[in-house]
TrEMBL record, chain A:
Residues 19-91 form the Transcription regulator PadR N-terminal domain. It comes from the Bacteria. InterPro entries: Metal_resp_DNA-bind_regulator, Tscrpt_reg_PadR_N, WH-like_DNA-bd_sf, WH_DNA-bd_sf. This is PadR family transcriptional regulator. Coiled coil: none annotated. Gene3D superfamilies: Winged helix-like DNA-binding domain superfamily/Winged helix DNA-binding domain.
From TrEMBL, chain B:
It comes from Streptosporangium sandarakinum. The chain crosses the membrane at residues 102-123, 130-148, 168-194. Keywords: Membrane, Transmembrane, Transmembrane helix. It comes from the Bacteria. This is Uncharacterized protein.
Length: 117, 311
């Protein structure tokens, strides 16, 4: 799924959408984002670590996420990422766009007389 | 993250062999990136690894290689002005091709081959002001050879290579304009680079293995005009591969520096084709069409990525 929100707006891939969605409830570190993304997508989006950090770099460079804090747990370094206001706007707009797109189909499927009604 | 955090992390899931293999894969990333984030990535990889696993899963290995290349491209695009760095890259490619051309004739023109090698090393190191007179000197000699004049030293013309190379006389495959255009462009590019105040970076030493791969190619003649052989196909494949990489890199970094380098490379190639108009074989025309297409892709990729950004 690579979709366009509006003309000139950046296309949001499915992986990016779920990464941003995973941060809606608060900051997470890399492993936390992978687990949350897997849960939210019902095991459909399983991010390889190299892909995840590439996406995090890109999202941070575009101002959609930011590093919230850094910690060392059991000798392992961790960065916690949080959604910025811009990131919040982008994921909200994308969700609304998909909802509207879905309603085009579901509205017809659930109409009286439809085979799915 | 600090350099201290790049120390081997505690291995919870897969033991040290898995961590060691992941660290090898991390070499795909630029050194600075590894220092800043390598420890964190290794920790996340080990956190997500299946217990008892010793080999990285293929999808993780592929993602690390791809992520590393992407990080290198982004890092390369963030240092210097795009046009300047692209010109430096293009001149480096020209110098590599020019040295490769002379390599089979080293026994006949050892000084000029040596000077050409020195020029390539200086350009790779970013020492363009030192490289400029060296390239200009070699260019003068090349002009002399292509015009059949014994300038600068008493070189016996035509300049032949030992039979093992299966090549004709130096610059014997075409007219004098194409080699002159290539050297003229290299000198002009170095003049522009030398006149600019920005300090140039060092290019990769991986340009050196390109020289033996291209050795024996005649920049004055068409690649397939004399029938072509397996090496010509390898050279063409390498050339197209680099141009497609230029398009990919331009798209990833949304940066035109690789397109500038591709355009610099294309100029002398077009001159060769113009000078040999009428004697093109079908593979030559296909080669030129592929080069034009790949260069156009490299030029369009950064602008398309800017107009249609993806997250």
């Amino acid at each position: 799924m690579v979709s366009r929100m509006a003309k000139g707006s950046p296309a949001v891939s499915e992986a990016t959408y779920f990464i941003l969605a995973s941060l809606l409830d608060g900051p997470l570190h890399g492993h936390g984002i992978i687990k949350r993304t897997l849960d939210l997508s019902e095991s459909r989006v399983k991010l390889p670590v190299g892909t995840l950090y590439g996406a995090l770099d890109r999202l941070a460079a575009n101002g959609l996420i930011a590093v919230d804090r850094e910690e060392v747990v059991d000798g392992r370094p961790r960065r916690y990422f949080r959604l910025t206001d811009h990131g919040h706007d982008v994921v909200s707009a994308e969700a609304l766009r998909m909802q509207q797109a879905a309603s085009v189909v579901t509205g017809r499927l659930l109409r009286p007389g439809s085979a799915f009604a | 993250m600090t350099a201290a955090l790049e120390r081997p992390a505690a291995t919870g899931a897969g033991g040290t062999s898995l961590e060691r293999r992941y660290r090898r894969l991390l070499l795909c990333y630029p050194r600075r990136y590894r220092v800043e984030h390598g420890g964190e990535i290794i920790a996340t990889l080990l956190d997500t690894a299946e217990p008892g696993r010793a080999l990285p899963p293929l999808r993780e290995a592929r993602a690390l290689v791809s992520g590393g290349l992407r990080a290198r491209i982004v890092a390369a695009a963030s240092d210097r002005p795009a046009w300047l760095d692209g010109l430096h890259l293009g001149v480096t490619a020209l110098c590599a091709v020019q040295l490769a051309t002379l390599v089979p004739y080293t026994a006949s023109v050892p000084i000029w081959t040596g000077l050409s090698a020195l020029a390539l090393l200086l350009v790779i190191r970013g020492r363009v002001r030192l490289a400029l007179p060296v390239v200009a000197l070699v260019a003068s000699k090349v002009f002399a050879i292509t015009l059949g004049r014994p300038w600068l030293d008493p070189t016996l013309l035509p300049v032949d290579a030992p039979p093992v190379w299966h090549t004709g006389a130096l610059y014997g495959g075409g007219g004098p304009v194409a080699p002159m255009a290539g050297y003229g462009l290299a000198v002009l590019g170095l003049l522009v680079l030398a006149a600019h105040r920005h300090r140039l970076g060092r290019r990769s030493w991986l340009w050196l293995p390109v020289v033996p791969l291209l050795a024996g190619a005649d920049p004055a003649g068409l690649d397939f005009g004399r029938g072509g052989d397996a090496l010509d196909v390898v050279r063409t494949g390498l050339e197209l591969g680099l141009l497609l990489f230029a398009a990919r890199a331009g798209h990833v970094a949304r940066d035109p520096r690789w397109a500038v380098a591709a355009a610099v490379h294309l100029v002398p190639v077009c001159v060769v084709h113009a000078e040999n108009l009428g004697v093109h074989s079908e593979p030559d025309i296909a080669h030129l069409a592929a080069l034009l297409l790949a260069t156009a892709l490299a030029a369009a990729a950064p602008y398309r990525a800017r107009r249609h950004p993806a997250l």
